[in-house]
Amino acid sequence: MTASTASTAFDEAIARDQRIEPADDMPEGYRKTMIRQIAQHAHSEIIGMQPEGEWITRAPTLRRKAILLAKVQDEAGHGLYLYSAAETLGADRGDLTQRLIEGRQKYSSIFNYPTLSFADVGVIGWLVDGAAICNQVPLCRSSYGPYARAMIRICKEESFHQRQGYELLMTMMRGTPEQQAMVQDAVDRWWWPSLMMFGPPDAESPNTAQSMAWKIKRHTNDELRQRFVDMSVPQAAALGVTLPDPELRWNEERGHHDFGQPDWAELKRVITGGGVMNEERIRRRREADSDGAWVREAAAAHAAKGTS
Ligand SMILES: [Fe+2]
Ligand SMILES: [Fe+2]
């Protein structure tokens, strides 16, 4: 099959809203974009275990510890499904990890902020997993089959994460003034970084148009950010916390909330390695990779014997 007929079959499948599967012909640009997006997503799930994982040994009760352990394990599972999805495009998992720990591939900027109190666990569940859900629900209809199918399962688990975070915050807000202040402080620190999770404004997002044409992405960054703000405002009111944005107000005409702009220079700084926790996150990932090398070698040696 020539390159031009391959791209025709691909274009037709995209136009008919059919899924692209691993054995299908696809343009090289599509394959590369998909590998990059899935790898960044997988890296984010794995690095995302760290900020909350730090609180497992310090959880205030056995129940909270069990919930947090389950949540962090889910994130490991998400990373594994996604690395598998990237492998269906010909990527090598070891190579992707290498790219991550050498700083050649990115992960979500949100995980480069520190978790300063147990309220952060609740706020991450509510806002960070909440933002992830806004981003990921449309990806369940993404054009690449293995990615879309992985997202369906991941989104189910993300809903649990969001609920557990919100429930934790509700409990703290019914507690002492100190506990309420911890929640407000965590909301103040995580609100703007959560808005940044949707990426730069559409006008400065060069890849959006191509990703929308290929139906990898179904909504623009600004549309998803708006959806997240509209969803979070009533939840904040029910919780009794203030979102730290003086420009936040309901706009009757638009039928949406108006809101202030995050500090885009900060996003640029954090995504290129200048966040408070970037170095630590990568250092720990590199350490985990070398600590686990013997397990991978043993597994490969066992597999090579051809016995089960
Ligand atoms: Fe996840
Ligand atoms: Fe999650």
Automatic annotation (TrEMBL):
Transmembrane segments: none annotated. InterPro entries: Aromatic_CoA_ox/epox (IPR052703), Ferritin-like (IPR012347), Ferritin-like_SF (IPR009078), PaaA (IPR011881), PaaA_PaaC (IPR007814). The gene is paaA. It comes from Actinoplanes subglobosus. It comes from the Bacteria. This is 1,2-phenylacetyl-CoA epoxidase subunit PaaA. Residues 1-22, 284-308 are annotated as: Disordered. Residues 13-22 have a biased composition (Basic and acidic residues). NCBIfam families: PA_CoA_Oxy1 (TIGR02156). Residues 298-308 have a biased composition (Low complexity).
